[in-house]
Amino acid sequence: MSDAAAVRARTTQQKLATTLARRYRAERRFRVYGFVAVAIGVLFVAFLFWTIVARGYSAFAQTYIALDVNYSEAEIDPAGQRDRAALGGANYGALVKAALRERFPEVTERAQLRKLYDLVSSAAEVALRERVLANPALVGQRERVWLLAKDKVDMLVKGQVDRRLPEAERNIDDQAIGWVDRLRAEQRVEKHFNARFFTGGDSRDPEQAGVGGAVAGSFLTLVIALLLSFPIGVAAAVYLEEFAPRNRLTDLIEVNINNLAAVPSIVFGLLGLAMFIQLIGLPRSAPLVGGLVLTLMTLPTIIITSRAALKAVPPSIREAALGMGASAVQTVTHHVLPLAVPGMLTGAIIGMARALGESAPLLMIGMVAFIVDVPHGFTDSATVLPVQVYLWASSPERAFVERTSGAIMVLLAFLVLMNAAAVFLRNRFERRW
Fold it and tell me: From CA 226, how far away is CA 220, in angstroms rounded?
């Protein structure tokens, strides 16, 4: 019997050893699968960011051409009165053309002159006008001025034009390339920091296009959304979590809130189009309407996160306050709500970050319009960063490719900052129970 028992014990041990070995192998395979999945995800994200940065970093620099401009009094102010209206209405484009002809006196044919004038952006006229209006003493003088180059010159200088391609497949021909090379040899071509990209509005000319108008529109839209969604969402969460009776009505409300959080964002755009624009008559393509639409979209998220923050407060806090004679309202406002505010703020920031990246609902209310001016009010026509990215991505010009990637980088920077703020608030003010 003892021998049989020993055999059975050895057999059992062998089975256990085999089972454990198989289990350990399965665990190791599972860990490898998990590591490979994470590595693949990181590689895809890294490739995405690398592609965006590689295409967009050049948008933060812009090519300028130095020309010797003669502020001819006969052209700018024939009357010699230095009147601002006369100075503002002068033909500064003629000064730019004269400076180009002086630099290339061999160019005389009309077709070649048009091609020569196309090396400099139309923004050069505005730059000269602003210089003269700021300092009328320049009239009659001569100075070297760095003027904004055309987008095709900018692409050439940045090395994004393949000179080996036939002329028909390039947007700049060999003669224009020769002129640019001559200016570069004379040290009259430089790349400067593109401040216009951050301060200017949209433009048909890529070299003049900027995200300033879209950033201002996004800011105004988020201000409206935050001012409305945060207090309404917190109030709704406090009522549902602390005061609402548990019955079928509140259960139905909670189910609908959870369902609204999963509704596609374009549905909120259709709702905003029907309610705020067609029914109430609010202006299209305005941050006011965009903020109202984003308020409807972010309210479910803020309510859910706020209720979770309230649930995280230990019941002992409420019991202690009630035991000391505080009313239900005093318990919530003086004890529960201050402890839940950090979690609520985190949820609000995450909701605003999601709203910042939305484009579908705003397309439905007309914020896809071509907006040149930077908005200054809640009822001014505006667009937002995601919509600006969409507009530039659909443009055929090569220079808009870098503008698109640059705008994506700006949008990602704002999203990272907002999520970092949410993490900071959570770590700084969250209390462990």
Answer: 10
Distance CA 58, CA 48 (A): 17
Mapped to the 3 state alphabet, what secondary structure does 271-297 carry? HHHHHHHHHCCCCCCCHHHHHHHHHHH
75-128 pLDDT, tens digit each? 887 877 888 888 888 889 999 999 999 999 998 899 899 999 999 998 999 999
Total-model pTM:
0.84
How far, in Å, CA of 347 to CA of 357, rounded? 16
pLDDT in tens, 150-192: 999 999 999 888 888 888 888 888 899 999 999 999 999 999 9
Asked if 407 and 378 count as a contact pair (C-beta separation under 8 A), the reply is no
Q: According to CATH, what is the number of the domain 212-429?
A: 1.10.3720.10
The Cα–Cα gap between 83 and 78 comes to: 11
For residue 158, with 0-12 CB atoms within 10 Å meaning exposed, 13-18 middle and 19 or more buried, which class applies? middle
Within 10 Å of residue 130's Cβ, how many Cβ atoms? 12
Q: How far apart are CA 3 and CA 243, in angstroms?
A: 73
Cα–Cα dist 3/403, whole Å: 83
